[in-house]
Each structure stands twice: as C-alpha cells, then as structure tokens.
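so my prof wants the structure for this chain in the tokens format not the other one, which i didnt know existed until like an hour ago. anyway here's the sequence
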Amino acid sequence: MYKNISSIMGSAMVSRFVNIGIAKRISCVLVVVLLVANALNYIDSGLNPCRGLLKNGILLDKEQGVWQPHGCMMHKYKTKYPMDSYSCLQNKKLAFVGDSRMRELMFSFVHAINPDAKTPEGKIHSNVPIKEDKISLSFYWVPELNETATNLLGNWGESSDDRPDIIFQSAGAHTLKKNGSLEDIYEQYTKNFTSILKEMQYLVKEHRTKIFWIMQEPVEESKLIPLRRLITNQRINQYNEAVKGLLTEKDSENRIQVIESFKWISYELIELSEDGLHLPPQALKIESSILLNLLCNNNLHPIDGTCCQSSPNVTAIQIVVFLLGLSCIVGAITMTYLKWRILKHPPPDIELGDVAQNGSVVESAEKLLPNDTKEIAATKKTKENTKFDDTLELIIALSKFTIIMMYFYICDRTNIFMKGNKHFTNARFFLPLLYISLLGLFGIISTSQTALLNRDQTDEWKGWMQLIILIYHMSGASVNVPIYMHIRILVAMYLFMTGYGHFSYFWHKGDYSLYRVLNVVFRINLLTVSLCLVMDRSYQFYYFVPLCTFWFVILYISMTIWPRANIKMQTATTNGTIPAEPSSNGPEKDYPLRNFNLRSPYSIMFFKLVMLFLVISVLFVSQSYFEAIFSWWPAIRLFELPTGSVREWWFRCQLDRYAMLHGAVLCFIYIIMKKLSVLDDSKQGCLLSTKASFITMTLSIGIVVTYTVWAAQCTDKFTCNRIHSYASILPITAFIIIRNVPGYLRSGYSAFFAWFGKISLELFIGQYHIWLAADTKGMLVLISPEWPTLNLVITSFIFVCIAHEINLITGILTKHALGSPKDEVMKVLIRLAVFVSSVCAISFINNTFNPPTFGGT
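here's what i got, hopefully its the right format
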C-alpha cells in the first residue's frame, strides 16, 4: 500500500512540473529570446536580405552539388521559362571582369540561363561579348588590378554606351604567381585596389550601377603546375583580408557588395578541380544559381526563394486585422487590471447607498429592503459578474489568438527568422519515422472503449497519420513517388473519418440543427480563415480544410433533405404514413430491422447513399464540367488557386472523391452488422468468429502488402493518382479490419499518438508557417543553421505548444461565436451574420486598396 501511495505521489509531483502548461510557458520564453536575438542579428546585418546568400553556407550534397546558404532559401531557376530568369534579366547589361576563373563563371552563368547557348572553348585571354535574347553579357579580360582595370571603370563612368547595369569583378591569382617580395606585391595590390574602389563608388553613386566584388577562391595546391606554385591559399587569404579591410575602412556605406560564399563553396569542391586552379562544374553550377537568386529573387518573388527577397508589402486587410487584434490586447489588459483592482479593493456591499442624516451614516438602505428584493439584487449582481467574466474570457482568447497570429506573420512574412531549403534523402524521412514509431509503441495503454473505431482509436489514428505527414513535408519527400502515394492514402483516411464520424453522429443523434453545422464549420475553418487574412493567402491554399468542409456539407445536405433517416425515428403509424422526425416528447424507439421496407430508415438511407454515389460520379465525370460549376461567384473566390482558376480544386477533390462516401457507407454497414448480430463490439474480444477472423485478417494483410508493393513501383504520379482514386478504398478497409477484428489490438491504443491526434487539425494548418517556412517550401530556422537537429527540436517544441493553445482558443471562440445549442436559431444566425459581414468588410477594404490580379504567378 505504501508503495502505491508513494507511486501516486511521485506521479503527481512529475505531472505538476512536467505538463503542457509548463511547456507553453517555456515556449513563450524561447520565442521572446529567439525573436530578440534574431532581430538584433538582422539589424546588425543592415537589414540586408542578401547577407546569408553572399556570406557563407553549407554543402549538403557534394555529388549533386546542393548548397544551403546561411539562413535563406535558394530558388531553382528554370531555363527559358515565363516569369523566370529571362524575364528578370531582360534588357540588362552584365559584365564579368577578371581572369580565367571569372570567364568560366560567366560561361556557366550563360548556360544556367540557356543550356543551349554557345560559348567559346579553350583558353581565351581577351574580351568575350555574348548576346542571349535581350540580355547582354560581356567578359573583360582584366586579370590584375592595374591601370587597365582603373581605365575600364573610368570609361564606364564617363560614357553610357557600354556601361553595364551589373558588374562582377575579381582579381588576384595572376598577381600572386609573380616572383618577387611578398610585401611589395601586397603593397601594390592594396594601392591598386584603393584607386579602383574610387571608380567603383562613383559608378554606384552617380549611375546606380550594381557592383559585386568576388573574394578570391582557394586552390588545390597539390594539383597546380610549377608556374602557379606561388598561388597558395595562405596568400589568397591575405589578399581577401586586405580587401575586406579596405572596404570596411573606405566604403562605410556598403556600396560595393562582397561575395564571400564562393570561397566556401570552393573549399568544399576544389579537390574535384582538374588543374587545381579552375573550379569544377559542380561549384560553377552552384555559383551561377547564387547569382540568379541574387539578381532575380526580389523582382520575381518566388515562394521558395527567400534569399535577397525583401518582406512583402503589408496589405490593407493585414493592417485592419492588426488594429482589431491590437484593440483586443488593449481591452484584455484593461479588463484584467479592473478585475484585479476590484478583487484587491472590493467595493462595499451596498446596492442603494447609505442613507445619510445630518452628515452621518445612520443605516444601510439595503438593510431596510425586504428579503425578496435582496435576493433579486444578489441574482442581478451575480449575472453581471458572470457577464463580465464571459467578456473577459472572450477578450483574453482573442488577445492570445492575435499574439499567435503575429508570431505566424513574423516567422513567414519577414526576414527576422531564417529559412532553409529542403533536401530529400531516405535518411531524412525514415529516421524520424523510426523515432516517432518507437515513441508511439512505448505509449501504448489499455482503453475502456470497445466499439469499432472508438474515440481513443480514431485520435490515435489521426495522431500517427499527422506525424507522418509532418515528416513527409519536413523532409521534402514529395519528390519520391512511392512515399507520395502512401501519403495520399493518409489524406484519404482523414476524409474517410470525416464521412464515418459525421454519418455516425447524424444517424445516432438525429441532430440536423443549424447549430451543429455551424459549430463544425466554424471550428475547422477558424484558423484557416484567420491565416488567409493575416498571411494574405487564398482559402484554397490550405486545401485540406476546404476539402473537409466541402465533404461535410455534402454529407449533411444528403442526410438532411427529406425524407430523413436515423436510428431515432419512431415506427410508422398504423395508417402507413411516413415515420415522423425524432420527438423530444416521450420515449424514442429504435426502428427494428426486421421491418425493413421502403419506408424504413435503413432503406431510406440505403437509397440516399446510392444517390450520393451517383451525384459524386456525375460531378467528377468531366474536369471542364466540374470547373464550370465552381467558376461562378462566389464559389470561385473560395476555391481559386491561382486567382481565377479552380484547377487546383479539381485536382484535390477528384483524388479522393469517394473517401468520404466510403466512410459513410462503412459506418452504415457496421450499424447493420451490429443490428444483425454479425459482430459484437460490446466486449474487448474478437469481433468475428475464429474462422471469419482468420479469413478477413489474411485478406486484409494481403491487400495492404499488395498496395505497398504497387505503390513502391510507382514512377508516374499522374497515372498512379488515377488508380488511387478507386484503389484507396481497399487498403483503408483492410487497415480497419486489422486494427479492430482482433480483441488484443482493439483493447489498446497509443496515448502518445492520441494526444497529437486531438490537435491534428492545428498541426496540419500551423505547419505551413511556424514549423515549415515560405508556405511549406522550406524549413523555419530559429537558431544557427549549423545545428539542424537542435533547430528541429526547438521549432517542433514551440510549434506543438502553439497548436495545442490554438485548439483551446478555438473552443472558447466557437462557444462565444455560436452561443449555446439551446439558443434560438435567430440568435445563432445574427452572430453568424455579424462574423461573415466583418470578414466581407475586411475583404472589401483589401480589394479596394489591393485589387486582385487574375492569372497569378
């Protein structure tokens, strides 16, 4: 007994200091500290969004030449593609000034724009002009910083005919290979660079020419020919330090930007060089990509290219939302202060004041009142206090929600926090998958619920699916078609549960009230709609919520239209009339299945499901037909992406068009089987007989293995997606059978996965901006990119805490927005109308000041 008591006390002590509340407080402190640190670092960089791209980075893959800049994302530019590098560099003049290494860099840059472009071959020690469409590129053979270099820059300053818009310059290797005193060479180099710097500054100041000085890259000394043996990395470092010192001293306004990242790329890849001096193709390819990101990102604003891209302009709608949220924060602070003052200094308990006579209080007026009047006054006071507390609860919830939305905006719409590209490898996907699987297995506990797909089991189901989807997005595994096809099954499973859960509710409860519909729609859409306003994204961008909402509404309409059918319907009257709706007066009777006829709820529901199948099939019979239906206002405003097109909505819907219906049908079959006593889930034992269990389990395992083998062999997403639309029914059904038929599997669940399943919606939507970055195209970096594992742990910890808090806030806001189920329909409609009108008004303001552009980018 004493051991049990000590165990209970120990668990209580642990839960007191290790719980989600403590975790949220820690996450708040982390957010504040990291925000201040990153903001100071960003200010220290001069608010330069190019700093990470130009300064340094990490080589992630030497074979493929994958480079990760420090704290920003590189966009992979396509060649001759509308709105890509060609449109960015149209009518621009680019000059590459330097030695043979600069010449090869320019040729690589030309091929990055157009792989079919022809460039001269061999050793060319002269100027090379290249005209590529409307882009002028020129290489100027100036291997040393001497009078030639000074005159070239001076001529550009005087004449506008050949003056380039952008100049990339570097020199040093040819100077270093000369014999002589190192001190004399160093002194002359410094002197020449000082004179050239003046010409550069004049071009930048007077003619707005962009000039980039490329630091000298290291060499592979063991491969150098004897003529170049004096070009050592030690000397190169001395020259680079000299340039940095002169720029710091004489270019305080940072007119000349320095590219240091090429130096670090060369350190990683110079060993692949053939002669030890010139860079290998892998390095030149990375450097060309860096130059494209440097020149084009801020003009084209690619989603997955945050390097050198300034923060987007704040829209009118974002300003309005911010002001509304700020007013909530001020109101919450004010009301909290007032409540604190009242509790600390409570007013005297006098309702009508004291009766004063001759300047002195003789007796409280309250004491003179009858007892009934006192009770009425006390009740009134209690209601006022309750109303005040309810208002305070609402304002505090809105304030917390505002602060969370501000964090979303700072993470993904500013350059304060860093971002990183995704790079898929099998290890990046399967190792985290192994970790969470082990954690889930260690968290298995028994459950008291015995029903098929009970609440504990569905929470667990949603939890492990959501964690796998997070790993899938984090690792960039969408490039792997077999993994992609398995993730498609998980999305179909979510929609399956939408159909199964809501069908079960409507059938057993018979609740088709407007309150029920609005409650579901409001809860699943609150975060998404808020992010649409705050992050300036369309509703369809968060595709999963529109899918769940759409299929829920379809199911609701199909079940609520006359004649309705549910388990609470009373038996038909003796005169053969249609069964009445569930009555709130008197006992309700379950309709016996033996009376199955055309007017029974079971037959009505059967025909409804058949009709729903036909409607869905007709709706998706043609893509043009589908798009025509959803291209009318206001549907197009909900489902367009990009602006003016609903093609993305067609793609998302048709992938899993039968998943919701599958859930509803399977729930209906399960209800009938229970009614016929084919299966019994009232106990923890096996659902079916031994023979039936063996057959169904064997078939189910075979189906799962077959689907896995088929998905592993998929190479074409388009073809496999077409098969998936129909084939997904089989593995989902097989999984349910495997998970539920054996009693020992149905009697336990993973509490670890179930905890995440309860906040799965918030995790799915929140990952877009505060775990991933650049609208899921990259990863959020809160600390140094050099510690990716620690960064993943910290971002995940903060992300989960915020998702849990949003889940609680959503419940509070839903309660206040819709009121109680007992409220009159008119009150609910008025509240809904106020909410919708507010959103429409904000959208109108946004469209007035920021009109939408059709066609998208």
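also thought this was worth mentioning. The longest strand covers residues 135-141.
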